[in-house]
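User: Structure please.
Assistant: Input sequence and predicted structure:
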Amino acid sequence: MNLKGLFKIHWQQVFAPIISTDYTIIVAASGGADSTVLIHLLYELNIPIVLAHVNFQLRGAESDHDEAFVQSLADRLQLKAVIKKIDTQYYASHHKLSIQEAARVIRYDWFQELINDNGVSNAASSNCFIATAHHTDDNIETVMMHFFRGTGIDGLKGIPMFYADKKILRPLLPFSRETIEAYALEQGIDYVTDSSNLKSDYTRNYFRNQLIPQLQQVFPQVKENITHNIHRFKEVADLYHQAVAIQIKKLVEPKANEWHIPVLKWKKTIPLHTISWEIIKTFGFSAGQAIEMVKLLDSANGSSMVSSTHRIIKNRLWMIIAPLQATEAAHILIESIGSTVFEDGVLELIPTASAEPSSAFFCEYIEFSKIQFPLILRKWKAGDYFYPLGMTKKKKVSKFLIDAKLSKIDKEKVWVLEMDKKIIALLGYRIDNRFRYTSPHQPMLEISYRR
């Protein structure tokens, strides 16, 4: 059976079940053999397609010729073509990227724009997909580059057949470059040749043109062997992630928007560095910080490390992972009695004649006559002090919280209720002695706080 028959079976088995009706496939069309053959195969299956070509302007007249070829192909097949022309060298310089990386970012960012552009596909964005012409040889080169650069098990799984989040399909992945080019010759399918592919200036080209051919002289079946290994690595990765998930579930205790892990349990985990990396990577930490994380387990109380989004703090016998506070809390103006909803809970100020039992996390009573609105609700800050109930001497809030044995993260969540720069209450912990009620005949104000 030739490529056309094999491709039809592959499409029906793998992609037809995951694509709904009334869909459009946007084909990444370079003009080369791979994408041009993919276009013809999809076209012959009566699959609705649009051609998308990027002119990177890296090869002068040759780049313009490739663009013209794609447009001509679309015209002959009576298909729609969309073209993006961009100065890739400027983009790479401006964004401090290599030419290869810049071209990849440009291409895939544009693909996502096209998916959401109903004018391109004439279909709802939910039914629009991108198809690239990656094949078996691309997969082999990718895995080899990952291996030599350094990678975890996921880097050895190769290119995914279907990238669900980005809605990218790779229908030619099971087929070799040799098979694709032989089909083009057999069917008389014209295509263009990118002259830069013949040079070894880029890493991928070096692997393609020099390293793999040299390996084939020693191991003639090297491509077949690597392809088989890729399938095995995928299964190994599945088993690996299942085992990791079990370990992490035993360790991590979610609490609101935080994650608490016992230090001793974490230290006894085997393999320590691998599990540590798997825990922290979902919170924006880099692979290099996994070593720092292991050291943090033996560090002093209060030690921490941060990523762009989270912080890990050692709090006595626990490691606490918490989101970074993007900005300081605002000052909330309270102009009258009633309820105030804010980011860490609900504060209620209720006039009352007697103290009643309450289910609130914090419920205290002060003398109403001592209160003058407006009041301020804010996070505590360094330098704050108050007179804790029962004390006639002032005490710094920071010292009070230390004595209360609060973790660094819990301290950051403490709010104060303030009047005329005097703290009325440290919500959740203590009212100020100056505002206590001194006579049962005076009206009281209930301060009720629920997290």
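The radius of gyration is 32 Å.
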